[in-house]
Amino acid sequence: MRYFTRRVVLFLITLWAAVTLNFILPRLMPGSPADAALARLASTGQPITNAQRDAIQAQLGGANGNIVGQYFDYLGNIFTLQWGRSYSYATETVAHSVGRALPWTLILVGVTTIVAFVIGTLMGVYAGWRRGRAADATVTVGATFLASFPPFWLGLLLLYLFAFQLNWFPITGGYSAGTAPEWTWSFLVNAFEHSVLPAITLAVTSLSGWVFGMRNNMINTLGEDYVTFGQANGLRGRTIATLYAARNALLPNVTAFGLSLGAVVGGSVLVEGIFGYPGIGNLLYTAVTNQDYPLMQALFLVITVSMLVAIFVVDLLYARLDPRVRVGPEGS
Amino acid sequence: MTNVSVTPSAPTDIPEIDDRKVNRSHLPAPVRFVGRAVATLWRNGKARIGIVVLVLFLLVAALAPLIARQSPTSTDFIPYQHPNSINWFGTTGNGQDVFAQMVYGSRISLLVGLLAGLGATVVATVIGLIAGYRPGPVDEVLSFLTNLVLVIPGLPLMIILAAYLQSRSVWTIVLVVAFTSWATGARVIRSQASTLRNREFITSAVFSGERLSRVVFREILPNMTSLVAASFFGAATAAVMAEASLEFLGLGDPNTVSWGTILYYAQQQNALLTGQWLLVFAPGLAIALLAVSFTLINFGVDTLSNPRLRER
Amino acid sequence: MQGDSGNPTLVENFNPFSAASELGGTRLIYEPLEIASPIDGTFTPFLATDHRFTDPRTLVFTIRKGVTWSDGEPFTAADVVFTFRLLKQYPALDITGVWSVISSVAESGNLFTATFNTANVPFAATVAAVPIVPQHLWADIADPTRYANTTPVGTGPFTLSSFEPTQYALAKNPSYWQADNVAPATVLFPAQSTNQVTNQLNVVAGTYDWAYNYLPNVKDTYVSRDPDNIYWFPPGGTIGLFMNLTRAPYTDANFRKGVSLAIDRDLVAQKAVNGYTTGASMSGLVLPNQQKWLDPSLSRRGYVEQDLTAAKASFAKAGFTESNGRLVDGGGRQVSMTISMPANYSDWVTAAKETANQLGAVGISVQLDLPQAAQFQTEIQTGNFDVAMNSFAGTGLPYTDFRNGLASSFAAPINTRTVNNFERYKNRTLDQALATLAAATDEQTQREATYRLERIMYEQVPIVLLYYGGSWGLFSTRHFTGWPSAENPYTLPTSYNNSILVVLTRLKKA
Q1: Distance, CA of C398 to chain centre
Q2: Which of B140, B166, B195 sits opposite A30 (nearest CB)?
Q3: Same domain, A229 and A119
Q4: ipTM above threshold 0.90
Q5: Same-domain status, A68 and A99
Q6: Are C249 and C366 contained in the same domain?
């Protein structure tokens, strides 16, 4: 129980610090939202004037009160989801913008991560079981190579080849222009077609972590006494690999799952941008380039909090699955 | 890294090698240490490939003026050339020689990868060691810091930091990448240090009255060389990728030529549309190969700490 | 029609005074009084039939009769007065700053009168461009600065027919006052990607009838893909080096002239924009667009050729000499220059690189600095920059161009913000010429005053103009013809501003 209380307290403190950091970070950026809006106008080649700047400054309103007041407003508003109005979409609330983008990323990144996790873990089991053989080398070196492609680069190449040259998939967006999200078969098919290329990009480049983790765990587990014992008792290799070794080797990989979700969301920033996918990553990039503090804060908040919660849950789960952990502060 | 050979009492992960005695009198300790590590890595097939690739890149970077006959910054070539005998990889829309850019670009990518990797490793090692060795408040604070950095999304954080550090140079990128990618390594090193803490040789060193810094850096650290090395190659891989991403976004140093900036300009001039395949393909592949070489070497490093992983 | 960038999706906002997120289609729903061509300032009438100055401070528009709002209500001069008073009441809506010049507005019958606080004839274009909203609907809006206006009612040729975050559609307004001149039945605006490559691929794939996009090697990448594909890349403004005129050695006109003479402008244009446009005339005019205002006494139409000997002579006058390939001052220190520009403006970056090469050849040490766009704005506005790339001109009106770029009244102290004249040029002769031009209603006086402005630019070199920034119009003639072109340059091919209204009331069915 003491372990549990300690975890909860630590979780709450980390949460507070992350939330505070989210408040500070966007404000570190040089430039201001009004300048960002002006820069956007200027980038279209239109002559810009002081009058425009004054009007934009007035429209954006900017933050009220001093920085301390802003901070407490921000803390209070987190719980009510009153995250204010986005600077780049003056007429829309931040909660609305985030709410619209979130499902897309959850589906894209979630499905991609699960697929990468399943395939990668299976490949890792196989490589670990066949360790030292040609199959192991092929799987590990191959996965290493795929993982080393910069995701945005792979995305660009896939986009050009399969969407532009071969016309197999649409070039941009989460669904076709002119259709609205709805629960119909044709829309789901449409959305699926749009998600194939970004999903492949993300899955391919995030596969290897699972492969290596699982392979090394497998090799360690295969060296344990109980596995040797099983072999001595005449159990077949495949039975050992799947029933005994893999099950026990899986545990560390599950903990990594929580952390990796956040990493994939971060990695999806560029990929979503390239494919024009209407998700969190794309929104975050827009928010950063527009110095849209309220939107940036909210997005960082959503990402960090979901990661912290994921880590917290995994930690607790791990402690339940492996009692040894509860003694030390943490399992590795 | 501190001098390792003065603590023969600590069991090191590096296997004893016969030529050690021969070397002791002639070479400084760090060289001997690196030599032994490389020799061990070399025995691992994957690491061997990684070392060969890395050495090739280092050679290209060092001998750039000999390999590329053209200047990487000159804009005097005919633009949009496909590969030919003068411009082996063709030219950019501005009339720059792509081959020369690739060759000279390896310098920046290696520099950023290695330096940022080193920076991240130093931070990771110091924080990980201290946290692991000092349980209680110190550990809590440092672990908490580590977790915090882990959960903030990396690339957006880098974008903000790169914008905040107003001078845009290669050093900015090194600093930003080092600052954002130490956390994973620190976590691993911390947990290893905390298990070592209770081992007998450490306990005895503490009882014999050795200073804390000496215990941590002389007794514990040498037992984690492979972990530190692994976190170095991990961070270096991340650094190469992060550098490419930042430069791809136009946040790099415009005065230098690197693989990331080649990709940036290739995108801006839409090289794919004008049929300049190599302009996009070559830098991406080079980045991938460099990252692969780091990861492959890491396979060898893993086997240093975990004999079970060694190839039979 | 490629018009709006969704980031990543479109947000419904048809408020014509919203600077942050207005959708381009808004300009087809709300009409202004008249639109001045960004090429040469010629007016195209919309809700006004014409305008005249009864004196240089009194501007009178004749309001068009027989126009109705798309909900059937009649449009009158009262709507115009209401709109202008709305902008006065809510300064946040006044994005073009009309109330910085106007002191009062009034209506009588079908006449709308705007009284200025100073003589400012060229400002008619800004007043004329204000989109007019219906009083009977807008009078009741609590906070028009936050009004998303999702059911827009305007006088324009199109009305909103559907809106999705990925695309919105406008349908032809059957009761439009010049409905005969509107060929398209619907206009579609799909959301664009934030990624330039993706956009270019979409454009090339033939998604649009009209797209605004820079394309490399346009003949191979666009024109050759479809016999209906045409393009027109006219100059839209001038890109130049803006030196911080509060810093030495940029305070010295001889030094600036030396820099100007050291640069091969056509080569810069060749590198930066594929040679789609040419090196810029130092007259300050965008040529050939503003041909009719060009001072005939300027040699080579104001184009300054690279002349390294003359450049060195000019540097010598400023006290700088060449030593071992380096341009040094009296104390032997090399001249060093840092050129900054937004990181994402690739043509500016390329131009700056070429310029840096050329200035390096005369011994100046040049570094480039690429901040994020917003940070760049902050730096230039507060005067914390060395040399900045930026654009000059582009309104089609010499007065507005020179005033925005060079008027002393804008030259704020360092650390005080100014968007205009951020290089902080001060020249009383120029201010006088501007004042003369502002008050002139006859073309002869206007011409003479403009010549004086051009000669100051040419001789004093307050800005080293480099090359013309292009206006990247890509069209398909499959469905419609009559796009603006070199033969018929009635407006710039910019799909994101007022030009869209001018173009869509001129197209013919193919």
Answers
A1: 12
A2: B166
A3: yes
A4: no
A5: no
A6: yes
Domain total in chain C = 3
Mean per-residue pLDDT, A149-171:
83
Tell me the per-residue pLDDT of C431-460, one tens digit each, with 9 for 90 and over.
Answer: 999 999 998 888 899 999 999 999 999 999
Contacts B168 to C, Cβ<8 Å: 369-371
Per-residue tokens: A166 = 């071969």
Per CB-CB distance under 8 Å, the chain B contacts of A285 are 156
C79 confidence band (pLDDT: 50, 70, 90): very high
- Asked if residue B273 is part of any domain, the answer here is yes
Judgement on whether residues C117 and C265 belong to the same structural domain of the protein: no
Instruction: Examine residue A225 and state whether it is found in any structural domain, yes or no.
Output: yes
Residue C70 DSSP label = T
Partner residues linked to C338 by β-bridges: C367
Total tally of structural domains belonging to chain A: 2
Residue of B nearest to A312 (CA): B147
B90 compared with A255, residue with greater pLDDT: B90
- The model's pLDDT over A136-152, given as tens digits with 9 standing for 90+, comes to 778 878 888 887 888 88
**Residue of A52, A33, A46 lying closest to C94 (CA atoms):** A52
CB contact under 8 A, C377 and A278: no
Yes or no: say if C115 and C54 are a contact pair by the CB < 8 Å rule.
Answer: no
Q: Taking a contact as any Cβ pair under 8 Å apart, which residues of chain C between 118 and 147 contact chain A?
A: 145-147
What's the pLDDT at C80?
A: 95
pLDDT, residue B65, reads 83
- The chains found to touch A (3+ Cβ pairs under 8 angstroms) are B, C
pLDDT at C336 over 90: yes
* Among A99-113, A287-301, B43-57, C354-368, the range of highest mean pLDDT: C354-368
Phi-psi map region of C51: left, alpha, beta (phi>0 left; psi -120 to 50 alpha) = beta
**Chain A residues with beta carbon closer than 8 angstroms to that of B274:** none
Q: Which chains touch B (3 or more CB pairs under 8 A)?
A: A, C
* DSSP secondary structure, A104-124, as one string: HHHHHHHHHHHHHHHHHHHHH
Tens of pLDDT, residues B101-110: 888 888 888 8
Q: How far is B112 from chain C (nearest CA, A)?
A: 19
What's A201's domain CATH number?
A: 1.10.3720.10
pLDDT of residue C337: 94
- Together in a domain, A43 and A101: no
Q: B249 with B159: CB under 8 angstroms?
A: yes
* CA distances for C508 relative to A255, C159, C293, C363, angstroms: 64, 20, 32, 56
Decide if A289 and C372 are in contact by the 8 Å CB cutoff: yes
Nearest to C369 among B168, B249, B273 (CB): B168
The number of C-beta contacts closer than 8 angstroms across A and C is 225
Domain hosting A212: range is 95-315
Confidence of residue B9 (pLDDT cuts 50, 70, 90): very low
Asked if residue A119 and residue A72 are part of one domain, the reply reads no
Same domain, C307 and C452: yes
Confidence of residue A37 (pLDDT cuts 50, 70, 90): confident
Residue B150's domain comprises: 37-70+90-311
Of C166, C197, C381, the CB nearest to A178: C166
- Domain range enclosing C502: 1-13+156-234+471-510
C contacts of A53 (beta carbons < 8 Å): 381, 417, 419
Do A67 and A143 lie in a common domain? no
Compute the mean pLDDT over every residue in chain B, rounded to the nearest whole number.
75
Q: Please give the tally of structural domains in chain B.
A: 1
User: Domain of B63: which CATH number?
Assistant: 1.10.3720.10
| Residues contacting C48, CB < 8 A, separation 6+ | C33, C34, C61, C62, C63, C64, C112, C128
Residues A214 and A261 in one domain: yes
Among C residues 262-291, those touching chain A with beta carbons less than 8 Å apart: none
C101 lies in the same domain as C36: yes
